[in-house]
Amino acid sequence: MAQLWGGRFTKETDKLVYNFNASISFDQKFYRQDIRGSIAHVTMLAASGILTDSERDEIIDGLNGILADVETGKLLITDEYEDIHSFVEANLIDRIGDTGKKLHTGRSRNDQVALDMRLYVRDELDEVTELLISLIKVLHRLMKENTDTYMPGFTHLQKAQPVTFAHHIGAYMEMFKRDLDRISDIYERMNFCPLGAGALAGTTYPLDRELTASLLGFEGPTLNSMDSVSDRDYVIEMLSAFSTIMMHLSRFSEEIIIWNSNEYRFIELDDAYSTGSSIMPQKKNPDIAELVRGKTGRVYAALMSILTTMKGIPLAYNKDMQEDKELTFDAIDTVKGCLALFTGMIDTMKLNKAVMEKSAMNGFTNATDAADYLVNHGVPFRDAHGIVGQLVLYCIDNDKSLLDMTLDEYKAICPVFEEDIYKAISLEECVNKRNTIGAPGPEAIQKVIEINEEFLKNLS
Ligand code: ARG
Fold it and tell me: Which of the two ends of the chain, N or C, has the fewest CB atoms closer than 10 A to its terminal CB?
């Protein structure tokens, strides 16, 4: 049991207490961030005249040695240490002796862990940003390739009006663009350095907090030492943004599962992204989409957990806050895994365009356009709605679609109809006439694709 704080105690910690209190099993995940923070800290201590340059160099060499040995597996992080901070400090002292004991000058584990968590979250936000961009690029390609791939649009999962596959995918494009925006907002708000806050009340050393902040790529130091050690808002914001990403992925997964079903057959998932059944030889299951949908709950759980943990904590640091890690780490890994797999899955799926188009042709998806035809010929919309309702009923009774009816049949219900009704309710017309911005018509979609093209260009 390697602890940093035995001085004022007369007894060994009870083993169960030690295990309950220790965090090494999970906070070892940020050994890189811990070492990076320590290197910045000693660099600042030397620049502020608190350590000599040679002490700084000795400590930095030691820390880099620890980093290299952990990376190569030569040095194992074991539960002999209470947490990652103790592991690094104890190993440093083992390596370089007494100079290592100066590392923790002007620092507490409270501001240290606050820094490590921020560095970790910041690094992970970068990774999630990259994964979102990869997904958005695939969506962009799918949109460009499918501006004339007709499919039914649904409300209540009932066929409503025809759209294009580009338009349907465009809806998810907007969601994931917002997700990207949310992450950059969070990044900006959290990018301040808590190191130098000490345990809660700063330190008496003349620390140059501006320097530490800039060495670690922060905008500047945080402004209140008590808030610095007890703020986990950025974790909550990240988990909230991740929950929204998962909600979007889950809805999309649900559609993939429906589209891939035997009944719909709008798409076919690639063999590499499907799984089989141990008993039913014919099966090809969309397990990846189901797992993404299923894992959404874990990420929501992490958000609920941290919100609950934080709600009753008086200022400043309390040990409850150690609970900010395990579920957060799990949520980060879950979101990254889901984004990567989902992107691969939709990048490789095949579209059955003919099936989609056929499906858009039936189910009276052109009924609104038939009513609009009447409105364009002077019939008030409410009357037109009633007339087309009668047409639909007639078609259902006679097992026809609106395009199958003869002009005489149309005229028997309403004399306003003329030969041009057929063109007006063709699939192409129904989609192509909808060209207000945001609608599925080709001109409207083209504009959005250009905006997205620009959006992607500005990211790099
Ligand atoms: N393992 C602790 C955490 O994750 C580090 C901070 C310890 N500070 C303390 N006062 N016990 O929060």
Answer: C
321 lines ligand 1 (CB under 6 A): yes
121 φ/ψ sector (left φ>0, alpha ψ -120 to 50, else beta): alpha
Verify whether residue 156 is a known catalytic residue. Answer: yes
Sign of the torsion formed by the C-alpha atoms of 183, 184, 188 and 189? negative
CATH of domain 363-459: 1.10.40.30
Catalytic residue among 156, 214, 250, 278: 156
How far, in Å, from the CA of 231 to the mean position of ligand 1? 13
Interhelix angle for 84-96 vs 53-72, to 10°?
Answer: 120
Please tell me the class of the 110-358 domain. Answer: mainly alpha
Q: How far apart are the CA of 71 and the centre of ligand 1, in A?
A: 24
Alpha-carbon distance 145 to 12, whole Å?
A: 68
Quick: pLDDT tens for 160-204. Answer: 999 999 999 999 999 999 999 999 999 999 999 999 999 999 999
Ligand 1 centroid to residue 185 C-alpha, Å:
28
Q: Verify whether residue 277 is a known catalytic residue.
A: yes
Where along the chain do its domains lie? 6-105, 110-358, 363-459
**pLDDT, tens digit (0-9, with 9 covering 90-100), for 31-52:** 999 999 999 999 999 999 999 9
Quickly name the fold that domain 6-105 has: Fumarase C; Chain B, domain 1 (1.10.275)
Q: Which helix (H) or strand (E) holds 268?
A: strand 267-268
Q: Does the reported pTM lie above 0.85?
A: yes
